[in-house]
Specification:
Number of strands: 8
Largest sheet: 8 strands, parallel
Radius of gyration: 17 Å
Bound molecules: pyridoxal-5'-phosphate
Strand order of the largest sheet: 7-6-5-4-3-2-1-8
Number of helices: 10
Helix content: 40-55%
Distance between the termini: 29 Å
Order of helices and strands: HEHEHEHEHEHEHEHEHH
Strand content: 15-25%
Amino acid sequence: MENDILLHLKEIQNRINKACEKAGRKAEEVQLLLATKTVSSERIKIALAAGYRLIAENKIQELKEKFEDLQSSTHTSHFIGHLQTNKIKEILKYQVSCVQSVDRLDLAEKLQKKLESENKTMDILIQVNTSNEASKFGVAPENTLALVQEIAKLDRVRIQGLMTIGLFSDDESKVRPCFQLLKKIQQDIVQANIPHVNMRELSMGMSGDLEIAIEEGATIIRVGTAIFGKRIYPDSYHWNENIV
Ligand SMILES: *Cc1c(COP(=O)(O)O)cnc(C)c1O
């Protein structure tokens, strides 16, 4: 079991290195985020011990369940699932340092309020729905700039870039445009020169499409299956806000 994870991590690192080489990028420019939904703390710790430090959950319940167990292993925790506003206090309590899935103003405003009351700040990414179907979450591409302009006025939430889930398809010619679109939106936002907005991070690419994402400029790739193995539930389960 331990060997599996270590072997898979090596394979992923090789894929990252190759994709970076092909794209003329440095491997250090791409951070590997471990997508740990349904993975036990024990297995997560194996990957952390191998030197990977960035992990992310989709659901507050799992974040909570693994929190104690993971305290002894150095790591940074992001959140990549659909976030309901009534769960914001848990995001702070369980020390999430970046919510990658902010896709609406009211969520950012409620985060702001909670952060203010605790005298904290938090990094966020704006999730964009670049595929128009695979996930119903994420702001529409054409509304992203306006959303960023509004959220930028909130001084406790710090925009660090954009996140997307590419189209689920084996057809590369349908996946790549999603990542190109995210890159294009990033550049438009940079052009707009909005105070307090950083566009450093592009979180895109998963087990099946990380090479394409890296070629198109990903700085964070989020990988689960290719490291920890297949999940028993379909992904729609993890992305459905109605199942808690
Ligand atoms: C599960 C998940 C991933 C990782 O997907 P894999 O195909 O298992 O690599 C990435 N991003 C998000 C938002 C996820 O929910």
